[in-house]
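Usage

Read records sequentially. Each one opens with the input sequence:
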Amino acid sequence: MFESSEAPPERDKAVTVLAIDTTAGQCSVALLSPDGCIAHVETMTQGHSRAVLPMVDGVLGSSGIAASAIDLIGFGSGPGSFTGLRVACGVAQGLGFGWGRPLVAVDAMRTLALQAAQAAAQAGASPVWLMVALDVRMGEVCHAVFSYADLSGAKGWPAPVGGPVIGSPVQATAVFDEFSGEAAWLAGDGFQRYPVLAEWAQQAGDLRQRPESAVQPDARAVARLALLGWQHGRSIDAALAAPDYLRDKVALDVTEQAALRATMKAARDAGRLA
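and closes with the structure output:
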């Protein structure tokens, strides 16, 4: 789904990006422009479908930027909450159709890794590894390892050196142990939710840091990765957008179906009226 038949655009073109993330324990919307980044972030585990469009209106109003000035829409594609991922993708599709804008799908693992890299840079640290463990319920986490060098001032699309894989917290620690002995910054709520991962994180003392700003995926990081993806020709037509579940749920229940239909209709209406 990431392939584009078009040549990558000019990297130095000024671009305005709207980003949406409803992956897990928060709902966030960000607007990244040449003048900076404005974001609205709320902690929540449900109700994303009701909150996200007012948040889109909020960042547009706060920035003074018209919808017509948006060049690109990024969305958190997962893994994460099944319903949450459908909400982010559905809203991004609706706005993409309405505004005639391309989309970039940004996975949660890269998003969290970038957040950890930014936290490390702000602290003046230069870890070797960025380790991500995101709770995906059923006693499992999605885990991956990235090189800090690939995320700090990234010029290419960052690729994990390990994973992403869904497995038990014990399996995650076994993978992380392969990269132990060097400084690592940790991201994702798996390190908070599962005692075995929390204990593992504490074993190496200062060699392993868990920044609070890298617990849940954030639309501000999604926006920056969406821009990077666009620069490398990874944008797609809205019709091709899809969540990345890694572990599929068979179907939405009746309530989830109704909420998703309402959200997508509202997004399309907003797009047509913009």
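Summary fields computed downstream for this record:
- The first helix runs from residue 48 to 63.
- The two ends are 27 Å apart (CA to CA).
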